[in-house]
Amino acid sequence: MNLVRSELLKIRTTNTWWLFGIGALVTLALAFLVNAVNADISLTGGQDLEGVPADQAEQIRATASEVYQAANLFTSGQYFGLLFVLLLGIIVVTNEFYHQTATTTFLTTPQRTMVVAAKLVTAALFGALFWLVTTLLTIPATLIYFGVQGWDAHFGSWDVTRAILLNLLAYVLWGIFGVGFGVLIRSQIGATITAVVLYLVGTTAANLIFFLLQQWLEWDWISKLAVIVPSTASTLMISGTELPGNPPQWVGAAVLIGYAVVTGAIGTMIMRRRDIA
Amino acid sequence: MSDGQWSPSAGTGQIVVSGLSKQYKNVRAVDDLSFTVEPGRVTGFLGPNGAGKTTTLRMLLNLVAPTAGTATIGGRRYADLADPLRSVGAVLEASSAHKGRTGINHLRVICAAAGLPRRRADEALALVGLAPAAKRKFKGYSLGMKQRLGIAAAMLGDPQVLILDEPANGLDPEGIRWMRGFLKGLAAQGRTVLVSSHLLSEMQLLADDVVIIAAGKLIRQGPVDQVIGSMAHGTRVRVRTPQAAELTAALHEQAATVDTDEHGTLLVAGVDAPTVGRIALAAKVELHELTTERPDLEGVFLELTAGKADIR
Question: Membrane-spanning residues where (chain A) (predicted)?
């Protein structure tokens, strides 16, 4: 596919990919460290659950399983990794306007739908690549860490495998969001800052709002609605075990696919109509 | 490519703009514009700043959607061309490459998308004399080098139609001369060359035909000589003399028309310079200057677009 080759070449011939790669690897190392410490606290049973509300205590106990913690470590780096993939998807689009290469791109390929499709595929491929590299690092690291601690990582069990594979899905889908986002906000700086703020602050804020609404209205299902926040959906999707009080993993996957389809479709429609001046 | 004989097998390469209009919020940038551009000739597309030249070219290339009308190249809309880069090459703005990408990689990206072989990138770069700077990043290019890279990109598919928007911008005199020879050479091979510009003296040297627009409307179209010759006044004779009144009277007797400019210089029409000299000698009038003045493209252009170049 010529257009995808061209898009991949666009990324390879600038320094974007290795800057992002370094960023993803550094944050991966940090995330792995934090998750390892969490696993240690959780699995060595050092928590004091007295005074913790019953439903929360139940959740904490559910996370204190080898499967949950192993899945969490195998998928380390997702939190920031997804952000990098999102930004890469944004840049794949906004670069064309920032560097005024959109003219050349659309002169070469007047079929704009094809161009957007190629960008979606490219962002998805880069997401998959980021997943591959981070997973190839976290698998041996987790196995070594669990081995040293004397725990079973359950590597090869369906729960763990599912978490690792759904993590791939998350990386691919976030690349697609990035492209849709970049089309909506054409300014490179504007799109980047909005995405980072929404991702880092928006997630927390949305979860807080859902929590407060639930406390206020005392409707349990409201806290489950938090899954409509994309990053919450990603986290849910890759949890190794089903957590009490949370929707099942497939709901997270469905939400993310929904967002990817919507952003991809809207992005394509806008790009088809836009005047390139 | 251009050093060989280009074969006009891919169609006529005629550009036809018909009733083209573009309405922006408050401005009708292009207003019911129609003209044709013929293969084998360089056509200058002229107009004051803001006349709608760039908008017209972008509508021709499917980058901007027209409000009304059509624009075709060889009978097809740009979006319907099976292999656009092999049919049409366009140079639209100088700064259209990623600043961190090398010149050669910029061309390779386009080759990849268009399904052209990679070596075309090297060939096109050599064609515009940019091979030594192939591996330099775009941000280190001078304006002239950027223009050459743009032309290289347009030549990748060895197209039959070339469309250039203000290609002389940023070129030094040597660069402008190179471009003139380059474009004339392409037209001589039977290709269609459409060049927008506001550098009128350059256009007079380069163009065979001109299309003049102002305020989004067609003002005049035709071969350069014809457009210049169509002006009300043809050739005039400029005369400076301390005895203007006597000479004017003598010239009137010979049915010449005489205008006087603000410095008292006479502008004589209807008779040629030797005749004016003879009349002056017969009338014993002293002459300080006797010059034939031919209207040039610039004069004609300014006259044609007078009052229509306002900011809209």
Answer: 79-99, 120-148, 168-185, 197-217, 250-271
**Do residue B112 and residue A109 have CB atoms under 8 angstroms apart?**
no
Contact between chains at A106 and B81 (C-beta distance less than 8 A): no
Residue B26's CATH number: 3.40.50.300
Same domain, B213 and B256: no
pLDDT tens-digit series, residues A187-215: 889 999 998 888 888 878 887 887 788 77
Q: Is residue B301 part of a domain?
A: no
Q: Is the pTM of this model over 0.95?
A: no
In a shared domain, residues B182 and B274: no
Q: How far is A121 from chain B (nearest CA, A)?
A: 14
**Residues in chain B, pLDDT under 70:** 1-11, 94-95, 231-233, 309-312
Domain that holds residue B123: 8-229
Of A108, A111, A276, the CB nearest to B114: A108
Residue of A107, A113, A271 to mutate when probing chain B, most B C-beta within 10 A: A107
Both structure tokens of B227 = 């457009």
How high is the pLDDT of residue A51?
63
Indicate the length of chain A as a whole number: 277
**Same domain, yes or no: B172 and B286:** no
Contact A9 B108 (CB under 8 A): yes
Q: Of B73, B128, B4, B37, whose CA–CA distance to A110 is shortest? A: B73
Q: Where are the domains of chain A?
A: 2-273
Q: State how beta strands B161-165 and B88-91 pair.
A: parallel
Which of B57, B60, B63 to mutate: most A Cβ within 10 Å?
B63
Say whether B29 sits in a helix, a strand or coil. strand
Nearest by CB to B101, which of A14, A103, A277? A14
Of the candidates A234, A226, A273, A240, the residue with the CA atom closest to the CA atom of residue A253: A234
**What ipTM was reported for this prediction?**
0.83
| Beta bridge mates, B240 | B289
- Are B289 and B221 in the same domain? no
Q: Min CA distance, B287 vs chain A (Å)?
A: 56
Instruction: Pick the residue from chain A with its C-alpha nearest to B60.
Output: A107
In a domain, B240, yes or no: yes
Residue A264's pLDDT band (cuts 50, 70, 90): confident
Residues 6+ apart with CB under 8 A from B70: B16, B17, B18, B19, B20, B77
Q: What is the pLDDT of residues A131-169, one digit of tens each?
A: 999 999 988 888 888 888 888 878 888 888 888 888 899
- For residue A104, the distance in angstroms to the closest alpha carbon of chain B comes to 7
Residue at B307 is within a domain: no
Residues B109 and B224 in one domain: yes
- Is B310 a domain residue? no
